[in-house]
Structures are given as C-alpha cells and as structure tokens.
Amino acid sequence: MLKETVRREDRLRAHIIQPTIRASLIGSAIAAAIAAAPPAAGQQGCLTTRGLVMTANAGPVAISGHFATVLQHGNWDTRPTVRFARLDHESAAEVGIWKAVWSVADVELRASTAFVAADDRLVAIDLGDPAAPVELDHVDLVNAELVSISGSRAHVLSTGMDGNPHLNIVEISQPAEMERRGSTFWGPDDPEPRAIDADRGFVAVADEEGMFVIDARDPFNPIRGGRWSGDAVDDVALIDRLAIVAAEFSAGTPQHGIRVIDLSQPGRLVERGFWGAPSRVASVVPFGDRLAVATSGHGIFVIDLEDPDVPVAIDQWDGIGRGAVDLAAAWPNLAVANDQVGLIILGLKPECMPPRQVSGRTTP
To answer: What gap in Å lies between CA 68 and CA 112, rounded to an integer?
Structure first.
C-alpha cells in the first residue's frame, strides 16, 4: 500500500511539475459555450509550475513575496492546520505548520506575517523562523470566517453572537498589537455572504444573490453602499474601481463566467462586461494589472481587463485540470489550492515578464 501511495504521488508530481500547456486553449466543443474571445496567439503558455506542497483537505491559500500558505481542514483524528512553504527562484518547499484548536477558515499573508481566521479569532503569526511559527497577537471575533487585507487594515467577516453577519475592521500595522476599529452588520434576512475583497478603503461582499460594497475609508464608520443583483456569487475581486464577480447565471441553462461591475459610483453599481468560462469559476484574484481565474475543471486563466466591457483570456494553465478551489496572487506568482493535490505555486516564465512595473495590486 505504501509503495502504491508513493508511486501515485510521483505520478502527480510529474504531471504537475512538467505541465503541458495546450496549443489550443479552448477546443471547438468548449468554444461554442464561451462568450469571450479565446486567448490571442502568441500570448499563451506564460504560466509555469514552481512547486507544490502535497496536502489533503486543502482550503484557502495565500502568498507573499517569500512565503505561501494553505489551510488544511481537520477531521476526526487531525487538528486543522496552516501549512507554510518558502519560495525561492525555482521551487517551493514546506517549512513549517501552525495548528489551530477547532477550526481554520481563511488566511492572508503580508511579508512574513500570516493573518488567520481561526478558533473564533483573527490570529497574527510571525514567520521570522518559519519552522517555528510564533503567535503574536489575536483579536476575538465570534465565528471569524473570511479575511481580506488592504493597506494596514484587515477586514474580517464573522457571524456574531446575534447570528448576523458582521464586517469587522482591525488595524494590523503592528501585528503584535492589533487593534479593533469599527464594524457594521446586516440582518438575518439578507443573503448569506460567501466572499469578501478589500481595496483602497472599499470592501466588496459577495453573497447568494449578488454583491454589495461597503465604504470603509473611515474605519470607525463603515457605510453600506450599492448592490448588484444576480445569481449566487462564489467569489469577488476588486481591481481599481471594478469588481469582478464569479457567478453562475441561469437563463435556460447555467452560464459559467465572470462579470465586471463598475464601482465608480459606489451607490449605483453598473454591470460592464462578461467573460464566459468552460466550467464553474471557483476563485478570482487580481494578478498585476490583470485578473487570474481558477476554474473547477479547466485550470487557471489570465484575463485582460484593459477594456472592461470586453474581458479577454490571454493565457491558460491546465497542468492538473480539475480540482481548483482557491487562488491567491503576489506578482509574479500565483498560489492555487487544489483538492486533489494541495498547494500549487505558479509563476511567469522570464520571457513573459513585462518590461514595465505592473500597475495593479501587489503583495509585499
């Protein structure tokens, strides 16, 4: 049994570490179901695998310039765990773990500090010695579920003792002395939230009926803004004044893809463009001045949003195919959570690096 397990892991490693990028990104059978243009000739094949960390029960991922992390949900005989990997130029190797008591829900990385929603808390963990992670501080937040960091603030979605969703804002400029700022909540009759993303003082909240924005530029007084209504949204990403939602739409048959929402007027959200995906979109994340999209059955796509009305796929990585569940980015790398193998690190080939500094969001 042990020999068979080793052989299986070897086959998976060979399949991922030496992925074959398709010569044609979208076959004719799939193209008919896709509303957007396929990747342009000469632009595909830029994503390449840098390494992986084999992990069962993989959950959300995060990445910074030097580290990547993946949550491992526990079961009856194992504690939930945060696994850390160190990145170098060509590879990624697991270097340490941090174990929660009851649950781990979400994680963000900033430089060498991890911020984890776990055990009804937001926990700051120092990776100065990644082989022995040190808990610096925590803020108690009942049922802390989702975390998104922008600037010096963590935005944490939790379910309070009253049973209502709460958005909590925490100052994290000194991770060893985190401080709560303001919060806001909405009623139990509102749709259940599924994802959040924060950028430049605004927070997008995705839920079962669409998404809405919260103006959190004053962290002590966050104000709820406009709503875009659609079908259930699985993830959301903010790029400048655009929100990109990953949703399935029902118009006779489900239509997988992303929609681009204009946030120029936070009180009035306007839909701009659509890109159709060949399978369900599991996660979206800003990738430089572009967008990375994880699909459940066709790997990772890179989307050009230069014209928000006409998003265009310009690259695809399909080294493992099915199983992507979460995505994180720190230019020029991507971290992929895959429910078949665990944490996969992707990077750009040297010949694909742009000659200029990217203008989108980056992570230190």
So the answer is: 10
Distances, alpha carbon 172 to alpha carbons 139, 265, 358, in Å: 10, 28, 26
Structural element, H or E, at residue 166: strand 165-171
Dihedral over alpha carbons 9, 64, 337, 257 (to 10 degrees):
-140
Count of positions (residues) in the chain? 364
Q: Tell me if 295 sits within 8 A of 277, measured CB to CB.
A: yes
Q: Annotate 228-247 with DSSP letters as a single string.
A: EE-S-EEEEEEETTEEEEEE
Of 58, 55, 56, 11, nearest in space to 294 by CA: 58
Contact assessment for residue 54 and residue 338, using Cβ atoms and an 8 Å cutoff? no
Q: What is the pTM of this model?
A: 0.83
List the pLDDT tens digit at each of the 364 positions of the chain. Answer: 333 333 333 433 343 333 322 323 323 322 232 233 334 333 468 898 888 888 888 889 999 988 999 998 876 567 899 999 998 877 788 999 999 999 999 999 999 999 999 999 999 999 999 999 999 999 999 999 999 999 999 999 999 888 889 999 999 999 999 999 999 999 878 888 999 999 999 999 999 889 999 999 999 999 999 999 877 889 999 998 999 999 876 554 467 899 999 998 888 899 999 999 999 999 999 998 899 999 988 999 999 999 999 999 999 998 876 888 999 999 989 999 998 889 999 998 888 876 544 444 544 4
Which contacts qualify for 85-94: CB closer than 8 Å, 24 or more apart? 85/51, 85/53, 85/343, 85/345, 86/130, 87/50, 87/51, 87/63, 87/333, 87/345, 90/50, 90/51, 91/50, 91/51, 92/50, 92/51, 92/52, 92/53, 92/68, 92/343, 92/345, 93/51, 93/53, 94/53
Task: Give just the sign of the alpha carbon dihedral 72, 76, 156, 236.
Answer: positive
- The candidate with the shortest Cα–Cα distance to 196, out of 241, 247, 235, is 235
How many CB atoms sit inside 10 A of residue 198's CB?
23
